[in-house]
Amino acid sequence: MMLMISNALLVLCWIYIAFGLLGIFRFRNVYARLLTGSKIDTAAMITLLLALMLRSGSWAFSAKLLVILLFIIVTTPIGSHIIARSAFDSGLPVKLIEEELIGADSDPEEGGD
Amino acid sequence: MILATIYVIIAAIFLLALKAAFGPTVWDRLLALNLISAKTVMLLTAYSVYTGDLRLLDISMSYVIVGFLGVALLSSFILRGGRQK
Fold it and tell me: Is the residue at A110 inside a domain?
């Protein structure tokens, strides 16, 4: 029973890794890539560590895996947020996807205010 | 099943290394570096449970700290102006 739940969580971890790679290679904006990469990678890490905790029999393994899981939950989103803050403070423009499509369709009007 | 997971993680690390080599901006490379360090921790824990070796978990626990410090220091270095300043 434990082994079946662990196998299901491992398959879920494969799916998360595949979607994270798809998002990283598919999106064109840096902030969108940061969003999908960090979020899906944290989800894959949580599911993998839960599956390994269910699979490993002894208490020492489970306690150390729990400590690693807490570390990962704290540090991985903070690292991605630091990268996004560095990109925003260095002057990389935040552009929405609709704005890119509208700007590609019609000519941008210069001047104005 | 764990062995197949290890192969999937190795393929993901290879694709992310390609992204880190050919990324358009600096922050793409930093993102790829962050994800590679997280994938390395996953690989170490999976291999530790696969072989039943308890000492590899300590190494992966220290690798979390090293990867986070590397990303934070490189990001602040780029924010301060990089090498041109």
Answer: no
Is residue B24 pLDDT above 60, yes or no?
A: yes
* Residue A41, helix vs strand vs coil: helix
Segments of chain A scoring below 70 in pLDDT: 96-113
pLDDT in tens, B32-84: 999 999 999 999 999 999 998 888 899 999 999 999 999 989 888 888 876 65
Interchain contact, B49 vs A56, CB within 8 Å? yes
| Among candidates A30, A49, A72 on the partner chain, residue whose Cβ is nearest the Cβ of B28 | A30
Please state the domain count of chain A. 1
The parent domain of residue A7 ranges over 2-105
Contact by Cβ (8 Å): A53, A62: yes
Chain B contacts in chain A segment 49-78 (CB below 8 A): 49, 52, 55-56, 60-61, 64-65, 67-68, 71-72, 75-76, 78
- Search chain A and give the residue with CA nearest B15: A21
DSSP assignment of B1-37 equals -HHHHHHHHHHHHHHHHHHHHH-SSHHHHHHHHHHHH
